[in-house]
Amino acid sequence: MSKIFLLASNITTEPYPVYPLGMAVIASALEADGHVVCQFDFLASEQSDLKLQNALSEFTPDYVGISIRNIDNVDSLTPESDWYLEHIRDQVNLIREKTTAPVIIGGPAFSIMPEEILAYIGADYGIVGEGEHKICELIHTLNNGETMPAIIKGDTLLTGNQMCSPLFTNDMVRFYKDTSGMINLQTKRGCPYSCAYCTYPLLEGNCFRNRDPETIVHDILKIKKDYQADCFFFTDSVFNDAGGHYLEFAEELIRQEAAIRWAGFFRPQAMNRSDVRVLKRSGMYAMEVGTDASSDATLAGLNKGFCFADVMAFNKNCVEENIPVAHFIIFGGPGETEETITEGLENIKKLEKCVVFAFSGIRILPGTGIYKKAVTDGLLATDDSLLKPVYYFSPEIDPEKMNQTIETDFNKRRDRIFPPSEGQMRIKALNLFGVHGLLWDMLLSEKKRKHRRKRQNA
């Protein structure tokens, strides 16, 4: 048995604070393996170095694990201060002042560039990919006095039945209930799609690995009972899988009368109105949609596998069932021209009763299609470091002119948000009035209230 201190290093609250689900899953696996675990969330602990130092001193760990969720905020329009690895390196140095325990890092951000990040941060070990079993094996090996490589990579992915239920804590649940209003869970891992910018298939495998619906609902009911939390966000890469597991899960929520409110990430394809109706009955109250581009040419450039007509049909089904939708759309990707920018903005106008978040350029990450495209286009050399943000912009456009065009087109519309920092400003303003939850859901509600007031005053 070992004493293991786990640190969730994330400090970003954009677009809202997110429960450190990865740390909770690792904690569950370690406790099941007989270890004593302390979970420390830097964000929920007021980002206090002193609180971190005190917690380390009180717990006296044998090992320290750090979860790295993000490298940066993938927004080309924000300053370099939104790069998080320097902050994590400082945390490692602080940990070294309080303990000689080996430092192990992991998490999705680390797994994207493990060698570079490990060297920059200065930890002892790094785990690439799913960490539940690997961290237990690493600690067992080290406790036996055996040596291990600095970077541990697994050859196999866990099945749905092998995935641990998260270990939540009361203080952390309370913090996220009070800030974002939501607790996070996964119903599956992996992604079979090959969107040009995305690292999900690299991190979680290129097929869906589904958790058992009864097990997920059991987790939900336990969270409701233990922590009085009843609003959830499912962090699956794509919630509405083509195999229909998402509908089985929704039916299980209905069967067990879970009585929760929930939202998730969706692909705007292959889901009819009756499917939306089932999800709504199960408690779905909003959707985030990976539309990603707004013309057929740019959708093809991102290798999305659907066209804008699919997006229109998807949005229509949601409108008919009164489900608020947020579309996330990237401008400036492969195939973008001045003509597609104009066409894309006109297409966005056809999307009724929804919020649209627009982004400028694509963060280039190793192993992705956009990385290969950037190298082919001569925008990037194979030995260029991507540790600090590098963005792809189509050679056919002027990024500054494109940004101004989008800003002008979105001007004075509460349901169209650009630049992304504008959304953060709005949510902070709402937080001052005690309002928490999904920003765009609230924006649509505000728009409806204004429309009703206008009709009443007419």
Describe the structure.
It is a single chain. The protein is an alpha/beta fold and 458 residues long. The chain folds into 2 domains: 3-160, Rossmann fold, CATH 3.40.50; 169-457, tm_1862 like domain (pyruvate-formate lyase- activating enzyme). It has 18 helices and 17 strands. It has helices at 21-32, 49-59, 85-98, 108-112, 114-121, 132-143, 170-179, 200-204, 213-227, 245-255, 273-281, 296-301, 308-320, 338-349, 369-376, 399-410, 420-432, 439-457; strands at residues 3-8, 36-41, 63-67, 103-106, 125-128, 151-153, 183-185, 188-189, 209-210, 231-234, 261-266, 287-292, 325-331, 355-360, 362-363, 391-392, 416-417. The chain has a 7-stranded parallel sheet with strand order 7-10-11-12-13-14-17. It has a 6-stranded parallel sheet with strand order 2-1-3-4-5-6, with helices on both faces. A two-stranded antiparallel ribbon has the order 8-9. The termini are far apart. 43% of the residues are buried. Mean pLDDT is 92; it is low at 449-458.
* Separation, N- and C-terminal Cα atoms: 72 Å
**How many domains comprise the coordinates?**
2
The profile of the biggest β sheet is: 7 strands, parallel
As a percent range, the share of helical residues equals 40-55%
Question: Mind sketching the topology for me?
Answer:
Elements: E1 3-8, H1 21-32, E2 36-41, H2 49-59, E3 63-67, H3 85-98, E4 103-106, H4 108-112, H5 114-121, E5 125-128, H6 132-143, E6 151-153, H7 170-179, E7 183-185, E8 188-189, H8 200-204, E9 209-210, H9 213-227, E10 231-234, H10 245-255, E11 261-266, H11 273-281, E12 287-292, H12 296-301, H13 308-320, E13 325-331, H14 338-349, E14 355-360, E15 362-363, H15 369-376, E16 391-392, H16 399-410, E17 416-417, H17 420-432, H18 439-457
Parallel strand pairs: 1-2, 1-3, 3-4, 4-5, 5-6, 7-10, 10-11, 11-12, 12-13, 13-14, 14-17
Antiparallel strand pairs: 8-9, 15-16
